Amino acid sequence: MPELTRKEYRQQQKQAEREAEKRDAKRVETEREYAKQAHDPDKAPKAPHRGDFDEQTFRKVNSLKKTP
Q1: Distances (CA, A) of 15 to 27, 29, 64
Q2: How confident is residue 35, by pLDDT bands cut at 50, 70 and 90?
Q3: Do 21 and 14 meet the contact criterion of CB atoms below 8 Å apart?
Q4: Which one, of 28, 8, 27, 6, lies nearest residue 16 by Cα?
C-alpha cells in the first residue's frame, strides 16, 4: 500500500468532510419534510372521543387502583 503525502492526506480529509456535510444537509432536509407532514393537523388521524366513565366503571377502576 503506497504511503500518502501530507497534501494527499489533507485532500482526502477535506473530501470526506465535504461528503459528510452533504449527507447531513440531505438528512436535515428530509427530517424537515417529515416534520411538516407529521405535524399537519389535517393529515393527522383523529382519536375517537371517549367520554367520562359512568359510575359503575369509575368504581371498578378505583377499586383496582387500591393496593391489597
Answers
A1: 18, 21, 63
A2: confident
A3: no
A4: 8
C-alpha torsion 40→41→44→49, nearest 10: 170
C-alpha pair distances (Å), 25 with each of 22, 30, 43, 48, 52:
5, 9, 26, 39, 47
Q: pLDDT for 5-23, tens place per residue?
A: 999 999 999 999 999 999 9
Nearest to 53 by CA among 43, 64, 44: 64
pTM, full prediction: 0.48
Q: Looking at residue 38, what is its pLDDT? A: 76
